[in-house]
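Q: I have 607 residues here and want to know how they pack in 3D. Can you give me a structure?
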Amino acid sequence: MNYLKPILRYAIPYKFYALLNVICNIFYAFFGTLSMISLFPMLKVLFGDSEALFIKPKWEGFRHLTSYGEDYLNYFITLKKSEGNDDVLIFMVGFVISSFLLKNFFSYLAMFFITFLRNGVLKDMRNELYDKVTSLPLAFYSEKRKGDTMSRISTDVLEIQHSFLSILELIVREPLTILFTLVSMFIISPKLSIFVLIFIPISGFLISLIGKSLKRNSNKVQKEQGYFLSIVDETLSGLKVIKGFNGEKIFSNKFQSSTTRFYKYSNKLLNKQNLAGPTSEFLGITVIAILLWYGGNMVLNEKSLDASLFLVYMGLAYNILTPAKAISKASYGVKRGNAAAERVMEILNSESPLKDIPNALTKTDFESAIEIKNISFKYEDEYVLKNFSISVPKGKSVALVGQSGSGKSTIANLVTRFYDVNEGQIDIDGTDIRTLTKHSLRNLMGLVTQDSILFNDTIKNNVRLGKEDATDYEVLKALEIANAWEFVKDLPEGMDTNIGDSGNKLSGGQKQRLSIARAVLKNPPIMILDEATSALDTESERLVQVALENMMKNRTSIVIAHRLSTIQNADEIIVMQKGQIVEQGKHQELLDKKGVYNNLVSMQSFQ
């Protein structure tokens, strides 16, 4: 029950449905007990053993409740019999049917109201999980599998609904059914009822012994599910490489190993879970058998209990078995739910180190410069940037070049605040970006990355990501600036064409031009280009380079470049090596120095 309290807070907005469910369950428990008791007068009529009583009995207090009830019933049957046996039989049958009808009617209503609560909690929890997933920093997912996160949002949340939230159905209905039934049984025969009271704690103890390892097994099942979902995700993402290297068998073996482990863990879990029903039923039947022997002795030998009343008592005793079984199954569900809740709460309780500070500033414009002051940064143990400083004045273009691993892309990650610096600071217009809201900071920036990240949607909706309310005309102009309209206009549905998963219906150059169009439409004052042309062929690079030049006019730009042909017109070129600046200046100045930059240009056969 460790995680029940934090889970139940999601039920607060739906407390009205919970209240209606409780009310209906009270009536269900009442009519459920009454439906069994209603069989007593029916049996009395059928067996013809009701004592004729013409005087209405007097109430003499709760101590004489059983005798008063029996006398009143005999009096009622005597009155009805005076009108004919058929009338009394029809009346009794109607009474039994009405009791069962009302019991099932309130059962349906209780389930009807709880459905809104359960599905509402499911919806809100998934929404909060998704928001949390998107708000946590990139570093949080560096060692996590995507499939595991997907499993937590889908399967684990569903498991919580089936386990923890099923308690909400049982917490009133089943205990009240047991309570009303026990009260009725004690009224009929206190001596017989002692057996039932002994049975409940014994069965509860035996069932709890089975359920102790359920949480551990459930955790293994959920983790393994996350693992094989990750394999599916990796397979679909890298299908071209897998097929190209004939690696189908390798991935098939990985997947089958995972599903085999899932099969074993699931068998262990379900077999223990399935033991709950038979165990509780066997214990229940054992007690019923004892009651039959002991109660039968009271009816046949002692003559201390009416035969009709004993049959009703047995029905009531059996009536306890169903809620008892439901409670035992729910206790197993809680064990499973605890494991699922633990995985869900791990994400929900994760604190982002990049969250906005209290009273963070909102910046709406860019006025003078971006200043990177003596920053040092490390992803793990080794620093990838050391005492790094540059200034990017408004309207200027600064290019960062260097070999792979020199720290170029890290600058882009720090300026956009995907990560925070370990030392030093980054200022925009003299204000530390850590004091700004992340939303307003990123609103000032457009980002074009080496990997063209597009979504399974239309061209229009992909381009409008940074400006949701953009008109079709604005989208068209952005596509023209990005040199993308020339191929978009020839597509079957123009800008309303769906581009497939990750934009796979388009070529690399076309995808990159759409990424540029997206940045153009956002129209930010600062543009960050992270190796935007490095993955393209020469023809695509030429088209994309023209698009980039169109986009960067009158904008402040930080350009991270692998292909040096793309940055020769930059206002300043920063040459990096192992996280430090080794040269800086304009293209021709750096060539004249015959240093590191000149060597990089020579290696790319560009003079």
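Q: Anything worth noting?
A: Residues 450-514 form one domain. Strands lie at 369-378, 383-393, 397-402, 423-428, 431-432, 445-448, 526-530, 556-560, 572-577, 580-585.
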